[in-house]
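User: Teach me something about this protein's shape.
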Amino acid sequence: MKKNDQRDYLLDNYKTLLIFLIVIGHFIEQSYDSNIFIQYLKLGIYAFHVPAFVFLSGYFSKKNYLISDMVGKLLIPFFVYEVIYYLFYTYFLQVETELYIIYPKFSLWYLWCLFFWRIIAPRFKQSALWYALTIAAGLLIGFVPLDNLLSLPRMIFFFPFFLAGRWITSEQIAVFRRKKHRIFCISILVLTFGLLFLSDYFIGILPKLFYGRYDYKFLEQSIAVGMLCRLVCYLTAFIITLVLIGSLSAKRRVWTYIGERTMAIYIFHGLVYNFLKEKTTLIDDLASPTATILLLAGCIGLVFLFSLPPFTGITVFISSIWGRLTDWMKARKKIKMEDMNMNFNYGINQIAYYDENDKLIAEVTFPDVDDHTVNIDRTFVDESLRGQGVAGKLMEAAAGQLRTQKKKALLTCSYAQKWFGRHPEYNDVVKEVADRGKDEAGR
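Assistant: First, the predicted structure itself:
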């Protein structure tokens, strides 16, 4: 097995672990105080699961994305899922809500934030100073009572983890994978969780801190205590996130494929959770060990269920809506171009194209110089058609007509000069290239 393949399996195993924890973390939300095991479980999960997921998202976002690509892959799906959740809440659960685009529903904040992280991150220079500024922003946002407005508190709070993932290299990850370092990582992991579990204060406050949306006043913290707690949480999450890289298996396991299908699980488990929360009492009380075991088993089952093709196919389709639409538009343009090529208006000294209102929107003109020579002096394409190769089609049509008429062309149009320069197969039509010319063409 190649090293790169091992690294890929490592990260897929990591994402698999995290998606299990995300689902479990949501489903134990209603019964946090039911028993001490659930309390410790929630503390352990919330200490790192979202930061680690953001970190991995950053690692897989190293390239600079076009905004149009991100609109199609993240923003359009975000709006689609917002509508789905709104309809689900309103008509199925009969819960009073609104289509709050500026207040993302349930876990959809992540798509919204990922869109902006991928756009913003390339603007940050890889330096300690820039990174310190993102940490400082994460601390300062705690002063502002924005709640979940545009997910800004979460966007700023979790951004340092995204940036760290984007900046870390495969070579640095390999360092954590060395045998002696793996033993050290496992030891640090056990120690970190042990210290967290010994703190009664963190059992009560840490999960809310790592929601990333609450300000210090809401958490009933003083400024000093609030900022100190956030620093501790940053440090804890970074330690656990990094040592897990050195601790998890890099081999392909039965469950490894789940790491490639996390989007469907992330979206659909929320619908089940909200149904159980609003319509049943099944997740309200986990006082007995049996109830706890059944809930955890149900969460594991949901992860496997929503990783099946019927569900992953839906999320893949939604993420491809924009691409399908743009492909359709390109196909329509191609058809339009083919139709235009067949419907050029051929005159003695002009080839033109008119729209349905008989407005001239493209032309090439070539007045006679003498009985055997014309002057290609102007190429015009309306702005509505630019970028579609219309000028080239016009020039090709003109060259073909002149060849049929056995005439030569003097090229004073700058676009004509460039086009014939790129198409030597029409040199037999060219008589002379002038020193200057003009055009209004767009390719």
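Now, about its shape. The beta strands are 345-346, 350-354, 360-365, 368-370, 373-376, 378-381, 408-411, 430-433. The CA atoms of residues 258 and 297 lie 16 Å apart. If you'd like, I can walk through any region in more detail.
User: That's plenty for now, thanks!
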